[in-house]
Amino acid sequence: MTQQFTITRLGHQGDGIADGPVYAPRTLPGEVVSGTLVGQLLTDIRVEVPSDQRVKAPCRHYKACGGCQLQHAADDFVADWKVAVVRNALAAQGLDAPMRPIHTSPERSRRRATIAVRRTKKGTLAGFYGRASDTIIEIPDCHLLDPALIEAIPVAEALAVLGGSRKGVLAVTLTLSEGGLDVAVKGGKPLDGPLELALAQATEKHGLARLSWDGEVIAMRQPPVQRFGVAGVVPPPGAFLQATKDGEQALLQAVLQATQGAKRIVDLFAGSGTFSLPLAETAEVHAVEGEAAMTDALDQGWRRAQGLKRVTTEARDLFRRPLMPDELKNFDAVVIDPPRAGAEAQVVELAQAQRPVIAYVSCNPVTFARDAKTLINAGYTLEWVQVVDQFRWSSHTELAARFVLGSAS
Which of 176, 256, 362, 390 lies at a CB distance of 3.0 to 4.6 Å from 105, suitable for a disulfide? Predict the structure, then answer.
């Protein structure tokens, strides 16, 4: 039975929400929509009265593909909504802060993507999954990805022919680097001699910088260098990397501004040196990261670079063993960039350590707001928040923020 609803707001996943609650994907506040209600989800949606913020999706794959959630909304609307998501997360903790203008990465700027590839009777099928589905949607005209990644999809298909199973799906992560295409495959057949040889030959044939198979490097023709400031780093296969160079630079500029003037900085959840190495142009840095392979890559990048101040590294699980106040006392600024879970245990110790400045980078406004409340209760002021949208047309929101001890400077 068809029912009619009025959308009142967007949820955190970008879905329209009507009273009930009823969730209606790809709708906008103020719209009157009809469809079939399945539980709390509205399906077979028809927009009866559209919002003036509704636009034609720029990408022809949008209707079927699950890679984007918000192409039907005007850019200004999406920008305002993402800033509001952060404001609302802070408000839920009883907090507020000055918000800088949002920075949005341009179209076709994603330098990394994980492509799903399935072998079929006729060959292969490669692309992104459909919304809430295990159906693979081909994306030859994707508006998210750098065109060089689109051109690399046939490489993912070729690898599936060599080492994919008809029963499973390969997850092929393609990353652009200075040395060429860096490819990391998960979910393939177990390695044996013939497969390893075939994959090494494919690396040569397709001119790949590096190919890894379920974490094991098969071949490396050129180091897949990522540039962090003046330093070139070769991250481990599949290691975390900001989705766009543009977004990375926006976050870096915020971190540099937040820590300006600091002479000794500790960088927590440092990864392969996204912030540590540029910070080392003016300050000594101690970089702490849970994965030893990433701290090794960071250290090698620092040693090869010219003109940087001292950088030390430490492989340490900051969830189980956060740095304690006595370990933090000699730093005059802290940079922290935790995963989506936030850094609850580490932030408790930061609150006690009372360092003058904290630059917090977050990919989850809810856990950021929780951690912000801990710091503010300990005497910090949240001086500003910079929202960065490098996951264009998605519900994903990132930010950088500056905390200062005492009143704002």
Answer: 390
Q: Which of 65, 68, 142, 363 is catalytic?
A: 363
What is the pLDDT at residue 127? 95
Single-letter code of the amino acid located at 92:
A
Distance, C-alpha 285 to centroid of its chain: 24
User: What's the confidence (pLDDT) of residue 120?
Assistant: 87
Q: Which residues does the chain have with pLDDT short of 70? A: 408-409
- The whole-number pLDDT of residue 271 equals 97
Q: Is 386 exposed, middle or buried (0-12, 13-18, 19+ CB in 10 A)?
A: buried
What is the 3-class SS of the chain, one letter each residue?
CEEEEEEEEECCCCCEEECCCEEECCCCCCCEEEEEEECCEEEEEEEEECCCCECCCCCCCCCCECCCCCCCECHHHHHHHHHHHHHHHHHHCCCCCCEEEEEECCCCCECEEEEEEEECCCCEEEEEEECCCCCEECCCCCCCECHHHHHHHHHHHHHHHHHCCCCCCEEEEEEEECCEEEEEEECCCCCCHHHHHHHHHHHHHCCCCEEEECCEEEEECCCCCEEECCEEECCCCCCCCCCEHHHHHHHHHHHHHHCCCCCEEEEECCCCCCCHHHHCCCCEEEEEECCHHHHHHHHHHHHHCCCCCCEEEEECCCCCCCCCHHHHCCCCEEEECCCCCCCHHHHHHHHHHCCCEEEEEECCHHHHHHHHHHHHHCCEEEEEEEEEECCCCCCCCEEEEEEEECCCC
165-219 residue pLDDT tens: 878 899 999 999 999 999 999 999 999 999 999 999 999 999 999 999 999 999 9
Indicate if 363 belongs to the active site. Answer: yes
Distance, in Å, from the CA atom of 69 to the CA atom of 390, rounded to the nearest integer, reads 14
User: Can you tell me the distance from the alpha carbon of 158 to that of 297, in angstroms, rounded to the nearest whole number?
Assistant: 29
How far is Cα 385 from Cα 86, in angstroms, rounded to an integer?
9
Provide the pLDDT for residue 408.
57
Tell me what pLDDT residue 409 has.
52
Using alpha carbons, select from 313, 306, 309 the residue that is nearest to residue 292.
313
- Give me the phi and psi of 303, to 5 degrees please: -65, -30
Measure the CA–CA gap between 409 and 398, rounded to whole angstroms: 24
For 228, the token pair is: 């962090």
Query: The tokens of 17 are what?
Result: 């929400």
**30 torsion bin: left (phi>0), alpha (psi -120 to 50), beta (else):** left
